[in-house]
Each structure stands twice: as structure tokens, then as C-alpha cells.
Amino acid sequence: MIYLDNAATTRLDDEVLAAMLPYLKNEYGNSQSQHALGRAAAEALVCARDEMAARLGCDSGELYFVSGGTEAGNSALKGVCLARGKGHILVSAIEHPSVIQSAKDMGKLGFEVEFIMPDSRGVILPESVRRAIRDDTVFCAVMAANNETGVIQPVREIGEICKSRGVFYYADCVQAVCTQEIKADFCDGLGISAHKFYGPKGAGALYIKSGNGISPLISGGRQEKGLRGGTVNVAAVVGMAAAFKKICQNKAVYNQSVAQIRDYFVNRALTEIEGTHLNGGGEVLPTHANLSFDGCAGEILLVALDLNGVAVSTGSACSAGATEPSHVLTAMGLPVERVRSAVRFSFGRHNVIKEAEAAFEILKTAVNKIRGKCALPIGN
Ligand code: PLP
Fold first, then answer.
1. Where are the alpha helices (DSSP H) in 57-125?
2. N or C: at which end does the chain have fewer Cβ atoms within 10 angstroms?
3. What residues are annotated to the active site?
4. Residue 377: its pLDDT value, please?
5. Best mutation site among 147, 151, 152 for ligand 1 pocket (most ligand atoms within 8 Å of CB)
6. Contact between residue 202 and residue 93 where contact means Cβ atoms under 8 Å apart
7. Does the pTM exceed 0.85?
């Protein structure tokens, strides 16, 4: 299989698995237990937290282990808003559903929720944030890079604006962290998820700048300083720290090689398949490419590619049995046809140029077939 869906999840790195195995086997203690096995688990969490905090440029006490990006976004948005009690919430219209839905949940509790629209490239302009902030704004969420388009957002400028107005700024760094240098100094909160950078599923980290009150979302024991009750998944956290260390090393070299493979694929698609459009502009992650193909429904193309061994995603979400068009591409103002025909190709560390070549040929055949121009049967 040619896996071009690395934005959805990545393959667990072998070294990460090796780091996790002792904690899945012999070192199985509960990190809250007082005995030697428990202390060993607690010590592993201390090491993982210290190491990740140092790389993120924050204090260990500001970093909480959570289950992933969804929980990080929920905890930051709901936790901060519930601690404040009332006010105005700003959320970019291109956020991940975990953030958008969390804001809507707060809307039901009386908070006023306002969405900030991107420009046609998919960029949230700092000026739009500046204009939208009010005296009663308590929270602002603009992600570091979008999951569907890979478009990188001007988070430093947005952070400055929020800081100058005393607004808590949350940056969802789930997609960006694998390839971008992420330091916690530009925001009040950020979230990352291990399975997006070759770590295990079910592990993530949430940074909350000290001094910010936040209500716990999961009540229980004193784990994670009382912010998140529940026995910590030590093996997953150890794996996340190992994966994080690995992606922080050789980032530039890796980014260059993955961008080369991605660019090769995109350039061929744009030049050799008529009616192909690149969605998203400005600065884009080296891993992502969102393409629309005139006359091809995204879901049909996805199935055709899958039948031929190429794994990709569409931006659309299935809710209640109906396929919703991508809220991201829609917010960018793209015509409905282009939104419906969008497919996300996302490249990763394990991809090689030969896969991009093969995937391109399969894509070209599939698009032509769907457009009714080619007699080759899909699936053979
Ligand atoms: N935020 C972004 C930008 C994402 O792309 C994702 C996952 O696709 C999430 C949050 C949710 O992360 P998780 O799967 O770890 O809950």
C-alpha cells in the first residue's frame, strides 16, 4: 500500500515502540503507587515531561499529559472558559472539529461564540483577529497549521495581539509540530498529539502557561495536578516523548526530503492532469497537498485510489450518515464543486519518491476513468 494519509495518522516508529515495550511488560506500575514499581512509573513520567517541556521551551509544571489533540483542545477551551465564567470566544472557522465543537458547547452555556474567517488562501489574517477582539473576549483559538490544507498560520502575530488585549490564546499545533519548530513562548496554551509524529495513539500534551486558571475536565484523582483524573498511560507517554525527541532532530533534512516528494507529486498532477487545482496558499507544511479535480467527486476518487492501493483522505466529514463538505475549504470561499472534488494527500517520513511516481500514475488513471475518458477498469 502507498500510504499518503500521514495527516490522519502516522506509522509508529520502531525506536518509539522499543522505548515503550518495557512499560507495557515488566514496568507496569501505577505512577500513583508508593512502591518501587509505582515509583519507576512516576520517574518515567518525570523524565518524559522534563524532556518534552525543555524542547517546547516551557516549565515541566506547565505541561499536562492528555489523550491527544481532541482532549487538548477541549481541555484548553472549556477549561479556560469555565474558569472565567462568561464572555466572548473567538475561534477561527478552519479549526479542527474538536475546537469548533467545544466552542459551540460553551455557546450553549451562555458564552458568545464568534468565528473568524480565513482569506481565500486559507490564512487567518492577524488583522481579522485584532478587529474581532472585544473587551469581554476571554479566549481565542487559531491553529498553527490547518489539517486539511497544511496552510501555516501567522501565530506569532496573532499571539502578540491576544497578549496585548489580555486574551488567552490557544494554538492547536497537532499538524504543525511534526515539521515546524514549535516553542510555547507565542501563546498561552497549545496542544500536540503523538500519533501525528510517529508516536502511539492515545497520547498528547497540553501546555497551559502558568498563572492561567483552568477548570479540570476530568474529575478524579490528583493525576496531572488535578487537571485530569485517571491512571496515566505511562507506556504511551514514554513513547510520545521518544517520538517527540526524534522529530525534533534532523527536522530540516527531513522537511526538505518530504517536500521534494510532495512537490514532485503535486507538480505532475497540476501539469499532467487537466482541471487540477491546488487548494490553499501562502506558506504550507512540507507534508500536505490538497487538490481538487474537476468532474471527480472526492469520495469516488478516494475509493478508486484505495482499490488501487493508495490511501488518502477527503476533507469531508461523515456525520449522521451524510457527507458534509469540508468546512475549511467552504470557509475559504471555494466553489462548491471544488470543495466536493477535494482530496488530501499527506506525505511522511516513510514515503519514497518511487511511491509518489506510482501514486501519480494511479491517480491519473483514476481521474481519467472517473471523467469517462479512459477505458481501463479501476481496481485492476
Ligand atoms: N487538531 C488537529 C489540527 C488535528 O488534525 C487532529 C487530528 O486529526 C486533532 C486536533 C485531534 O487529534 P487526536 O486525533 O489526537 O484527538
1. 69-84, 97-108
2. C
3. 318
4. 53
5. 147
6. no
7. yes
CA of 98 relative to ligand 1 center, distance in Å: 8
Which residue's CA is the closest to the ligand 1 atom numbered 13?
A: 69
Ligand 1 lining (C-beta closer than 6 Å): 68-70, 73, 96, 98, 143, 147, 172, 174-175, 193, 204
Contacts of 150 (CB under 8 A, 6+ apart): 7, 175, 280, 284, 285, 287, 288, 289, 290, 346
The dihedral region occupied by 346, where left means phi > 0, alpha psi between -120 and 50, and beta the remainder, is beta
Q: Mind listing the pLDDT tens digit for each residue in 250-304?
A: 899 999 999 999 999 999 999 999 999 999 999 999 999 999 999 999 999 999 9
User: Does residue 321 surpass a pLDDT of 90?
Assistant: no
Residue whose Cα lies nearest atom 12 of ligand 1: it is: 69
Judging by beta carbons within 10 Å of its beta carbon (0-12, 13-18, 19+), is residue 224 exposed, middle or buried?
buried
CA 154 to chain centre: 16
Q: Which three cell numbers stand for residue 14?
A: 520502531
Please write the tens of the pLDDT for every residue from 325-351: 999 999 999 999 999 999 999 999 999
Q: How many whole angstroms separate alpha carbon 346 and alpha carbon 312?
A: 7
140 CA distance to ligand 1 middle (Å): 18
- Residue 90: helix, strand or coil by DSSP? strand
Cα-to-centroid distance, 341 and ligand 1 (Å): 23
Atom of ligand 1 nearest to the CA of 69: 12
